[in-house]
Amino acid sequence: PAGGASLRLCSTRVAQEGINKPVIDRIIRVDHAGEYGANRIYAGQMAVLGRSSVGPIIQQMWNQEKDHLKKFNELMVAYRVRPTVLLPFWNVAGFVLGAGSALLGKKGAMACTVAVEESISEHYNNQIRTLIEEDPEKYKELLQVIKQFRDDEQEHHDIGLEHDAEATPAYSVLKTAIQLGCKAAIFLSERI
User: How far is residue 120 from each of residues 6, 14, 48, 110, 179, measured CA to CA in Å?
Assistant: First the structure.
């Protein structure tokens, strides 16, 4: 800079004083992984059903998931959180789950959506409770983000139900299996 003035770059980091860093790291890491996985699920569904009558509905939900992932990418930087080392696995597993459920047809894809989004809504509700117990004012921005994304996920869940998810053969078995996978993914992504 001219005249010897110092150049100060803007920081995208959040002030770290007073935050419960282990809790925030765990929340942001797992939510980033979850949104990444959701993007891969919808990518798999679109690969199979993108040109079908349900393609625009899947695309609409995927677009919201893309926005969610973008926000968690920003939060990862702002809070200086490392991603889970399992992202390469979630990349493949998410796409396979999405494409596999879509191979069962529209109802199968929607059954997958209901199972995943119900699990994620519950997960986000648990995080909201944790942050409120910690300090709702200190985590106000993060709470707003999680509440909005929880509402979006609940909307996706409801869309799945509106599009005959429950009419999928062996719906309860499929839903239970997917939700067990979600619980395992959440557990692992919080920690690894």
Answer: 46, 25, 23, 15, 9
